[in-house]
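COURSE: Structural Biology Practicum
ASSIGNMENT: Worksheet 4, Part C
STUDENT ID: 0417
INSTRUCTIONS: Below are two proteins. For each, the amino acid sequence is given first, followed by its structure token string. Answer the questions at the end about the second protein only.

PROTEIN I
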Amino acid sequence: MKMILRRTVKSGLIGGKKFELTTRLESEKDLAALFKGYPDELVLAYKSVFGDRSVSLKRSEFLRGARFSLTSLNEMIELEERLQTALDQVRRMAEIVETFETDIALQE
């Protein structure tokens, strides 16, 4: 499973440059089928330190691709870091769904 990011910058007449970040997941597994029947949970929710906005993202939106409008490079860096955490969350969810009804040994 990997996350593909596309960064875009657009010129704005008022307020200078406008930034956009598009993300999507690629996987050898059919993740939509894997999570079919499970609640569509949040994998990302936070209040941005650099922009006056709250960001939330459900698993289904992350799987099919999402687009974010940003106000600064700092906000883009913050979002990319949070998206990495969301990717880790989806990986963990997939691992859990795939291993139901089996014994799992966790190491310290």
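PROTEIN II
(use this one for the questions)
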Amino acid sequence: MTLQLLTMTKHLFTSTTATGERRYVDTGYDWMCGHFFLLVTDTDREEPDADLMVYFTAHDPRFLDRNRKGSAFGGATLDELKTCFEEQGITPPEGLFEKLRDDELLQRSHEITHW
């Protein structure tokens, strides 16, 4: 038996962009790091198990700038996360950003929500 400990909340859903591309979205708040994250994969791949990572905040140079202090390094603030959603053409489920704000305020972890 493997014990998996999440130091974050995870909010999982699929979305279709304005151009018709289906995306799988994994977003949440990592309380240990103190920031939000967004991972987007392409679900329209023909090969099974070949989801292609389209975007990940942990790979975004804006968030890897050494001038970002403390928990801002490597992740996004809630306002920055909203911008990332817009840039990726993803419409979040109603209430997602409020839930993420609560995750941060309450320092939630170990919680997975399927929207």
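ANSWER KEY EXCERPT:
Q1: The radius of gyration is 14 Å.
Q2: The chain has one domain: 9-114.
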